[in-house]
Specification:
With about 190 residues, the protein is of the alpha+beta class. It has three helices and nine strands, in the order βββααββββββα. Strands 3-9-8-7-6-5-4 form a seven-stranded antiparallel beta sheet. β4 (about 65-70) and β5 (about 80-85) form a beta hairpin.
Length: about 190
């Protein structure tokens, strides 16, 4: 018996946790899958090397209206960094998987002082044909996300939908890049 009223709580599944009120929280990984009309290489490069051109900073950043850009250091151990208009850098995460053009992953600790409560994001890119790619996002590790893990998971679940919309709009040409050619990648 672990409730204040003396009644037993129902058993929890491995992906559930109780908050301080005894309410069960869903801690299962967030899973999103969608397709884009481009090669697997282009999809991977757009997400990882061109993220500053399409990421919806206004609603998906720490500094909100002060956010100027975001970039990913494209190496294992690299950082995901938001830069403000004043030049302040805010680290969002650390790259823990780097397998171009098929997989990219990171420990996500956006807005946290350190990485102790980091969740883990894995993004896979699967070629369906020459000009069509399946993108799969798995965002887990919510059991490590601290006392606010339930609300954080809920916010991220909604947040991924906005990120996907921004990426697919950018790739299709209906996003903020419409009419602009892609800049060349650094180093090739």
């Amino acid at each position: 018996m672990n409730r204040r009223d003396g009644l037993s709580s129902p058993p929890r599944t491995p992906n559930q946790s109780a908050d301080e009120t005894g309410m069960t929280q869903n801690l299962s990984p967030i899973y999103r899958e969608f397709e884009v009309s481009c090669s697997v290489e282009h999809a991977f490069d757009t997400w990882t090397r061109r993220i500053g051109l399409w990421w919806p900073l206004a609603g998906h950043s720490v500094s909100h209206e002060d956010a100027a850009s975001v970039r990913i250091e494209p190496v294992l151990g690299g950082r995901i960094i938001e830069t403000t208009r004043t030049g302040k850098e805010i680290v969002w995460g650390t790259v823990n998987q780097w397998q171009p053009p098929s997989k990219f992953g990171y420990f996500w600790h956006i807005g946290e002082e350190g990485a102790a409560e980091a969740t883990e994001v894995t993004i896979t890119f699967t070629a369906l044909d020459v000009e069509r790619t399946r993108v799969t996002i798995t965002h887990g590790g919510w059991e490590r996300a601290g006392s606010a893990r339930g609300p954080k998971r809920h916010a991220n679940e909604r947040g991924w939908d906005g990120v996907i919309l921004a990426l697919t709009g950018f790739i299709s040409g209906s996003g903020s890049s419409k009419g602009k050619p892609f800049p060349p990648l650094e180093g090739g």
